[in-house]
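Working notes for the structural subgroup meeting. M.R. asked for a predicted model of this chain before we commit to crystallization trials. I am recording the input and output together here so anyone reviewing the notebook later can reproduce the run.

Input as submitted:
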Amino acid sequence: MPSQKNHSTPPEVQRDWISRARALKPILEAAAPRIEQGQAVPPDALEALHNAGMFRMMLPKSVGGAELDLATFAQVVAIIAEGDASVAWCIAQSAGCSMSAAYLDPEVAKEMFGPRDAVLTWGFASNQPPCRAVPVKGGWMVNGAWTFASGNRLSRWLGGHAQLCDEKGAPRLRPDGSVMERTMLFPRSSARVRDDLWDVVGLVGTGSDSYAVTDLFVPTNYSVVARCIPSDQQLPEGVKAPPDPERRGQGILDRCSSQAAHQAGLTSVAIGIARAMLDSFIALARKKSPSSATHSLRDDTWIQARIAHADAKISAASAWTVKLLEEAWHEAATQGEISFPLRVRIRLACTHQINEATEAVDMIFREAGATGIFKNQPFERRFRDMHTVAQQVQGSVARMQSVGRYYLGMPPQLFLLP
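Returned structure, recorded in token form:
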């Protein structure tokens, strides 16, 4: 039975992590052109990130991680995104992946995550052909290809979600007819990484490459339950999952799914981009006088209102998400899990903050005028980054439709519920 004591993260811990992120912001802002040009975080900036523990926020304490609460984690990612969105995206992606440490044999977890610069990431299964694992002595023989491995150029380890097969290669099925899966973990050096395919408009610095393996042997204890989530993640409301025998961690974070961390982090990147855009525009408005205007932007009542409107959108969306994540942490601590209705609301809030941040960025970019289109100004890259975030599955209108179905008494789409 979970303890009834106060499980809130101590304020001094929250302040410490937020202070770390703020200290990194100017470093990342200065490195942003190099990050985009190189499609990866340069060594000096990466060293600063590791020194601050940014890739260890969701790791278990047993391997030197912070096991940070979801609300603080989301705020840290947003601040990092103010400095550079690609870096924040890589941190958020790897954070959810690193929660797999709670499912691993302790010695394997220490091998993978013990080094201070350890990073794990993975991408989506391409399923062309299907990613499959066939049992062999001591483990699995794995074949597959995956895409969108954000942060893989910073990583020592990669993961690959694979369908489990029998010795003849036929998929293994659960009682409900679905295919059994596991996430295979292997050194990045074991994969063929295609770093020539990542040619995109925004979040360029994530280096979200494609990768593949052919007849790769993965030992049994280097695989975890699919996507490293509690088995109840995609069960309908009211259906209780059986105990999860592979989840070794017993902390509050271990009662949350990695999907919750991914949603909290990836969607908070949008908040950071929008906040940075607004701050830059305020600085511009204080000194710019458009050539066709009779007064400065600062003295324009329309601009004054637009600044306030943008701030309201960003601040309100972020505050709602943070509040729900705090509630989720409390439920996980006191009830052992996050309730289904709260999971639905978190899904809504995370998509909402992407939408609101995008609207704020569009508003600001338009008011910046011709200044906004120059690459030496702090607007156009963030504009591109924001619209790349908005194109990701987290921002899809399908997420809103799913929540609406639930409110109307119909079963929601379970895909991407935290």
